[in-house]
Amino acid sequence: MRDQLFDNQIDIADFRFDANVVKVFDDMVRRSVPGYDSMIQMIGLIARMYGQENTNYYDLGSSTGAISLSIALNNMHNNNQFFAIDNSEDMVNQCKKNLNNKVNNLHAICADINDINIQNASIVVLNLTLQFIGVELRSNLIKKIYDGLNPGGVLIISEKIHFENKQIQNQITKLHMDFKRENGYSELEIANKRQAIENVLITETKEEHLKRLRDCGFTDSSCFFQCLNFVSFLSVK
What we know:
single chain; 8 helices; disordered N terminus; 43% helix; 7-stranded mixed beta sheet; Rossmann fold; alpha/beta; 21% strand
């Protein structure tokens, strides 16, 4: 379904992943996030490379299940359990519908990812998820993931970032707005969504993300993908 959630709203509430968002989510994210399909494809290829036999794969903040499906389709290993976790019941229900009969050993769970026990993991993904978690909680979550990963396992993080240099930030922001316009969003829709999400989605710089990963134990981290202000990090334990 085409995303028209913000085409005529006047009173803008903070953004919520409710039933209305779920209906248009796949269209919304592809028209809002530059390189989204490439991001999903690369995460699947990384899972193919780093997945291990007899281990768990975690998709934290799984939304409608695109990442879980990409990982499953690329999985070359045996006896793996797939955990798709999201705190929106509507998202979890849609994920179950989307992945029904497509992913074996799938556990789609409605829960706060901060409360999930990560264990025997070779793949953990936070795809456009960490940015919706309070900054003060992010290190604890990354450390918990690090502790739950097996040696050689990986954490993949995709995030919207910002830049310390104001000139660069302004340039990238303008390009991102042009990207949305090219994908059919009106000025009203762009302004309304930005107002709705600005208190919910808290960005950091690329350097802040890499420092946190180092502080939490990852000595091998790199940025393997970037399109405008959206990046993906690969960290190997």
